[in-house]
Amino acid sequence: MFRPLEDRLAALTHRRHCVVTGRGASAIWLTLEAFKDARPDRTRVVLPVTLCTSPAAVTHHAGLVPVFCDTDPASGNLCPAALERLLETRRDVLCVLAAHLYGEPADMVRIAEICTRFDVFLIEDAAQSLGAGGVGQHGDVTILSFGHTKIIDAGGGGAALTCDAGLDARLRETEFRLGPKPREAARWAADYRTTYYGAQTEWDGNPAAKRRVGEICKLHPGLYLHRLDEAQAGLILTALDALPAEVDRRRERAKAYDEAFRGIGRPLQRSPDGVPWRYGLMLPPAHRDAAVEALRAAGIDASCWYPRLAPFFGDEGDFPGGEAIEAGVVNLWVDDRADDARIAHSAALVRDVLTGAGTNGIKSQDSGT
Ligand SMILES: *Cc1c(COP(=O)(O)O)cnc(C)c1O
């Protein structure tokens, strides 16, 4: 019954096979289960340290263990050199997950070459980059998401796509193990948010606060693992018609931000193939929180995705790239609310924070080039 949607997504990503799921996270889990069947001796999943928690959650729910790899502070994407160093020291890695974070394509050519050389599977996580150029050309399986805040938001939905008939067969077999979305899912999601935002108020001085977030991810597999429902499949199909226009609009909005924020901070890397998930900006860490507060006080949503994922799962290792992103990033919306007036207002508010902060603020403007 999902065939028309699956065919459409396969065509969009130039993959031969597609299995749709209730979430992007469910699709990652299916993929991990399929890889596990092929390499039961391997137990580790390499994740970029700059990422949301759900890929780490489903790694746990697949009975595997995440290992974190540093990210490039210019883009937030997996750093190929760090990946190479990591794989040189480990023989227990089942697969690497590389996300096109913020809609910006990761360096998949290099990452795929490294994964082939070290004989590990590669997941291309395109959850934030639907409609970006080149998606589907590298890696064993491509993941999509139609969840909250994604390029197409159908309130949920995901897909796993591959060109490998053997993997496709295993994905389909495993898909039978997924049930419908549990009725408790909304409550579990609310509990997660409460824990997350509660922990955030104290995690700067208290590593245990971050670990609470990791622990709640492990409580309810059903929050992450379920089937797509038919109404959402219909919504996704309809929304796909408008995807090219949506991609154009997001790219235009990002350019408008570039203009308005010229000389204020540094935009995250964007290439022509990318599709901005949000507008990503790096600010001097000393002023970042004040800038976000000023935006929010004016009723403008701003977020700081993503803090490093490793400490949530008990890994206190050194990740300088991920730390730089965590300390400086601000994400601003590129949806319909981000009209020219709001973008200009946002830039003025942030500029005031940076310049109003004295010589440090003035110096920080120099980093905008
Ligand atoms: C949202 C997201 C996921 C998970 O997708 P859901 O549909 O929310 O389960 C995975 N990876 C990345 C990079 C995401 O942004």
Task: Provide structural commentary.
Strand 4 (93-99), helix 5 (108-117) and strand 5 (121-125) form a beta-alpha-beta unit. The protein has 15 helices and 11 strands. It has 2 domains: 2-233, Type I PLP-dependent aspartate aminotransferase-like (Major domain) (Aspartate Aminotransferase, domain 2), CATH 3.40.640.10; 244-366, Aspartate Aminotransferase, domain 1, CATH 3.90.1150. Mean pLDDT is 95; it is low at 358-369. The protein has 369 residues and is of the alpha/beta class. Helix 2 (24-38) packs across helix 3 (54-61) and helix 2 packs across helix 6. The chain has helices at 3-13, 24-38, 54-61, 80-88, 108-117, 165-175, 185-200, 207-217, 221-224, 230-241, 243-260, 285-297, 320-328, 340-356, 359-365, and strands spanning 17-21, 44-48, 65-69, 93-99, 121-125, 141-145, 158-162, 266-267, 279-282, 302-303, 329-332. Residues 23-25, 51-52, 54-55, 99, 125, 127-128, 145, 147, 158 line the site of pyridoxal-5'-phosphate (PLP). Pyridoxal-5'-phosphate (PLP) binds at residues 23-25, 51-52, 54-55, 99, 125, 127-128, 145, 147, 158.
